[in-house]
Design goal:
Number of strands: 20
CATH architecture of the largest domain: 2-Layer Sandwich
Number of helices: 22
Distance between the termini: 26 Å
Helix content: 40-55%
CATH class of the largest domain: Alpha Beta
Structural class: alpha+beta
CATH topology of the largest domain: Creatine Kinase, Chain A, domain 2
Number of domains: 3
Bound molecules: adenosine-5'-diphosphate, magnesium ion
Radius of gyration: 28 Å
Largest sheet: 9 strands, mixed
Length: about 700
Amino acid sequence: MNVTEIFGSYVFNDAVMKEKLPEETYAALKKAVKGGKSLDIAVANTVAAAMKDWAVSKGATHFTHWFQPMTGITAEKHDSFISPVGDGTVIMEFSGKELIKGESDASSFPSGGLRATFEARGYTAWDPTSYAFIKDNTLCIPTAFYSYGGHALDKKTPLLRSMELLNTQALRILRLFGNTSVNRVITTVGAEQEYFLVDKELFNKRKDLVYTGRTLFGARPPKGQEMRDHYFGAIRPRVADFMKELDTELWKLGVLAKTEHNEAAPAQHEIAPIFTDTNTATDHNQITMEILKNVAERHGMKCLLHEKPFAGVNGSGKHNNWSMATDTGVNLLEPGKSPYENAQFLLFLCSVIKAVDEYQDLLRFSIASAGNDHRLGSNEAPPAIISIFLGDELTEILEAIDNGSSYSNKENSDMEIGVHVLPHFPKDTTDRNRTSPFAFTGNKFEFRMLGSSISISGPNIILNTIIAEQLEQFADALENAKDFTSALNTLIRKTIREHKRIIFNGNGYDDAWVKEAEKRGLLNIKTTPEAIATFIEDKNVELFTKHRIFTKEEIYSRSDILYDNYIKTVSIEAQTMAEMAKKDIIPSILKYEEHLAKLVEIKQESLGFKPDPEKAILKNLSELCNSVYETTESLTKELGEAKSIADKKELSFFYKDTVIPEMQTLREAADEAERLTGREYLPFPTYGDLLFSV
Ligand code: ADP
Ligand code: MG
């Protein structure tokens, strides 16, 4: 396989554009993209024609405006290129108009009330900053999705807005440091993706996996991840074949798939790309999740992207590695070589520290989902408390700046710390800390709280916005300063002093941290309904509307959609549990009981033996069966009660406080019964079957 030839072969990327477009068209397109301007229709027609010819030469027959509605997954509606010419034949056609704008019946996508049902129209608009690509013989054109009234109905539009905002504010800072050569600051992201692979046949035998993507029942197997033999272990042939095809498919689509390895839990794996700009990284992560599922199918497996497919073994997350970079290729979170560069680095670092401290709620909100609630704070993923890991070295430097004392390390003997005499930062300043939700890893931040199935768009919208807000405040203060250096000094010192409570380098999984965090006044938002509630708080609404990231209507509609999503997820899970209990679990217990009861009779009456083991198992199982039955009844009753609660927030709290604990009780009884039931009586594949199936 020739990787360099395959790579990007299904992408209408810059190299292809240069080759296929007339020079003026290419230049006009580049100019429009750079300036964020809309494209002249003549130019669009030329681009569309070239795109179509290229796509058809690669076997494409259809095109689609590929977009990211609030469902969190991608959507597409295929149109073929054919156009009749009147003599019974067709030609392949694609116009500039079709490229730039699409109209689709959008009434079935969640809009949170932004689009009344009678106004079903939704529009898609080409995002020329993300390359078009071919998937399943279809030319996919990345687009934004918005309503008739101009409100964003998708995850791309606000992301692009937030990137633009950060660009504007970061440029102001760079200018203050005398930098006039940079024209654009982009945010960069590398998203590490975790997932599970299980055998497809076994998967299909479990209604919980089929309906909800996670197991709702299942006793733990004797072997889980305690031997730590899976992590970075040798990759089994079936999985290796899968990964090989996965890489090839992703490379064709220009996704920079780089690292593949086994994760902590049995059957758990990770794929990581090389980082790129946030918009592309987001599109690519959506593509990656889709390709993961498709390729797994072809190999007789199912790829589970759920945050917690199995209780008792690690769940899956997504690490969002984030930084800012200039169009001249400089990473703004890279500690510099000279004190002057370091002052700039420190200021950007401070913008992150202040942003994270002031908007803990929004960061927590940005990763909230019913699935992720099973991971956070359960000793495998970072706790629900937001804090920053900086590493000892950097923390010491900040502390020295804060109290104006001297700082010493191996390379520098004691030195006064001031912005004008900062130390050289040692290269690899950070140790590894796997328990921090937000860790500085040398030249970027790793936001580790994301669940494996969510779109990374949300967390990046929040990151870009809250950091841009700080950069704006900093620029405002510094642009008006009489003495830049001393103003900078004061600003950095003040920021460190006021926000250092958010820095925590210790073990985030430790109970002691929960208490310590509370003392520091940090938020500990444990569940999704509570996290969603913070979104519409005044300070947050003000932030988003001021920067035009979300309108007030968009904020309310999104909060509505999120409550809805939580409610539906838990409700489907609860109904699935009730159904499995009634249709599968109880009947299987009864069958085994019947078998035991018969044995008791035979042994006792015909043979005169004492059937003690049979009786003991029978007694225990009967009791458990009782619990399963009764809990299922109350669960069903509660699901009925839920129907009478109209307010979405109230309803989501009802699910969290009443339904979820009931589900937990039901599961405990059923899992205990599973342990006592003979293998051939079990109604569906066990954890052991699933986890060691591939
Ligand atoms: P790990 O966290 O597993 O040790 P790495 O340090 O190799 O992994 O990097 C993890 C991810 O961070 C990769 O996707 C990588 O491309 C990405 N990354 C590296 N530098 C940056 C950066 N400046 N901005 C955003 N992401 C980055
Ligand atoms: Mg990582």
